[in-house]
Design a protein that fits this description.
The strands form three sheets. A ten-stranded mixed β-sheet has the order 1-2-3-4-7-8-9-10-11-12, with helices on one face. A two-stranded antiparallel ribbon has the order 5-6. Strands 13-14 form a two-stranded antiparallel ribbon. The chain has about 350 residues and is α/β, with parallel strands linked by helices. Helices cover about 30% and strands about 20% of the residues. Strand 13 and strand 14 form a beta hairpin. The protein is elongated and about 70 Å long. The two termini are about 25 Å apart. The chain is built from ten helices and 14 strands.
């Protein structure tokens, strides 16, 4: 099914012109759909044009059907319903610098990382560019105004496994005639699909690249990330260096600390050597609970010691603040259906 949010400005402009309408109608419609307006709300658009669009394109690709708010930090988790009955989750986190929405790119995920809930049911389907964009539009509409100022493609799914729809989203989300979210305020998280990382920057897309590394050696990485069978750690690092050389954007490496798996001082030393010599940053993550996975997080004292070890080796490193864990909205906890306290929606 096709939706207006799936269209770029130029694609919409061609449709408007082919309908015999004035070119300025495109800007009117594009502005309306960026606000999440239904056809009936497009007050300055001719009825005949609205009827034509309604006959060919759905009204809205995604709806919020449930919201949970963290009692600890105010983080909100949304359950979205898609046109075909599938559901996905997203999270809105509030910071001093703005509001960040964690956005999904697929229903489920085929990567099946050992610490993540998104891959438990495998990949169901890709989201269209409009369904990705629609998550932002829906949250803005819920709260009124341009609530979302920053976007992280870190929800369910591997963005670069849905490459075409992801890059179309990147094009649309920063269009000044629509949502107009700065390109520098968009982050893309990947488990390390090296060929797609290179393609992304070669084609001129420059989101903040965040790579889920989670291990300094191939041996350890293969135990927790099946993608490591196809891409060696050395290849991931080279792809990151290439991205930096082309874009000038600092790359961020995500590293979830798993008790007894990747949290030794030897791992810290190897990690520091891997990232030495180019502009990058390590984002340490205290593993969040996914009950089906059965992995334990590294104790906080050991997490802090791992961080200090990296810093003494000269690495740029921070420990990510965990938000929304009490509503299963923290890193690695999003899924294709909401489960809370034994209840399933």
């Amino acid at each position: 099914m096709n939706f207006l949010l799936d269209l770029t400005f130029d694609e919409l402009d061609e449709i408007v012109k082919n309908a015999g309408e004035a070119a300025y109608r495109t800007a009117q419609i594009y502005s309306w759909i960026a606000k999440g307006a239904k056809y009936s709300q497009m007050s300055n658009v001719p009825s005949a044009l609205k009827d034509k669009l309604a006959a060919e394109y759905g009204d809205e690709p995604i709806k919020i059907i449930k919201t949970l708010r963290s009692s600890a930090d105010g983080t909100e988790k949304f359950l979205y319903s898609l046109y075909d009955g599938n559901v996905i989750e997203g999270v809105l986190m509030r910071y001093k610098y703005g509001n960040t929405l964690c956005v999904s790119t697929q229903v489920g995920c085929r990567m099946n990382c050992a610490f993540c809930a998104s891959g438990l049911d495998g990949l169901v389907r890709n989201l269209s560019s409009g369904e990705i964009l629609g998550q932002i539009v829906a949250v803005n509409a819920l709260h009124g105004g341009n609530t979302v100022t920053n976007v992280v493609l870190m929800g369910s799914g591997e963005p670069l496994d849905n490459y075409d729809n992801t890059v179309k989203f990147l094009q649309n989300v920063s269009d000044a005639r629509g949502l107009n979210i700065s390109k520098r305020n968009v982050s893309l998280s990947t488990c390390g699909l090296c060929d797609k990382i290179r393609r992304l920057c070669d084609e001129g897309y420059t989101p903040t690249l965040t790579i889920s590394l989670h291990a300094p050696t191939d041996e350890i990485r293969k135990k927790i990330m099946p993608v490591a069978i196809s891409y060696k750690v050395s290849e991931v690092i080279e792809a990151a260096k290439y991205y930096f050389s082309v874009t000038g954007r600092r790359v961020i490496f995500e590293y979830s600390l798993i008790d007894g798996v990747n949290d030794s001082f030897e791992c810290a030393d190897r990690l520091a050597r891997l990232v030495k010599g180019f502009s990058c940053h390590i984002n340490l993550i205290a593993l969040n609970d996914v009950r089906e996975r059965g992995l334990g997080g590294t104790p906080r004292q050991k997490v802090n010691a791992f961080k200090v070890r990296l810093e003494r080796a000269g690495a740029s490193v921070t420990l990510r603040r965990s938000m929304g864990a009490d509503i299963e909205g923290a890193c690695g906890q999003l899924r294709r259906k909401h489960i809370k306290a034994g209840e399933e929606t």
